[in-house]
């Protein structure tokens, strides 16, 4: 049975209106989605609503990981003539090497210089490894 602003558990009657509305919303979600028992759902909803009120005006500060500069991804892929280096979203290959180790070495330096990621594929096209050179 969903609760409303007019029909709510007695334990919510002394809550502030904002907290009560949020607690009712959370309670209905817990009952509907989690099929939670009322003895557990009601105090859980009240607690979460109080946490919501305490945190609703706070902003999450930017973390250094959010502001990393990320360049183009560089791919080392199998090619008819050996191994190719291809940049992200480019249709044409940038370089072709006979040996994979040469292609990986060149691609690694490109990825480092551009602060991108290096994705190395196997002969069958699956990804063998991915290395990130993002700037912090």
Automatic annotation (TrEMBL):
<dbReference type="Pfam" id="PF09954">
    <property type="entry name" value="DUF2188"/>
</dbReference>
<dbReference type="InterPro" id="IPR018691">
    <property type="entry name" value="DUF2188"/>
</dbReference>
<protein>
    <submittedName>
        <fullName>DUF2188 domain-containing protein</fullName>
    </submittedName>
</protein>
């Amino acid at each position: 049975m969903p609760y409303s602003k007019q029909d709510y558990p007695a334990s919510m009657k002394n809550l502030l209106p904002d907290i009560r509305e949020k607690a009712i919303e959370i309670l209905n979600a817990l009952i509907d989605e989690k099929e939670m028992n009322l003895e557990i759902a009601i105090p859980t909803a009240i607690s979460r609503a109080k946490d919501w009120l305490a945190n609703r005006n706070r902003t999450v500060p930017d973390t250094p990981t959010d502001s990393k500069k990320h360049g183009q991804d560089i791919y080392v892929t199998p090619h008819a003539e050996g191994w190719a280096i291809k940049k992200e979203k480019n249709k044409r290959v940038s370089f072709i090497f006979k040996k994979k180790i040469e292609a990986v070495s060149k691609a690694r330096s490109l990825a480092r210089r551009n602060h991108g990621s290096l994705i190395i594929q196997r002969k069958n096209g699956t990804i063998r490894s991915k290395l990130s050179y993002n700037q912090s």
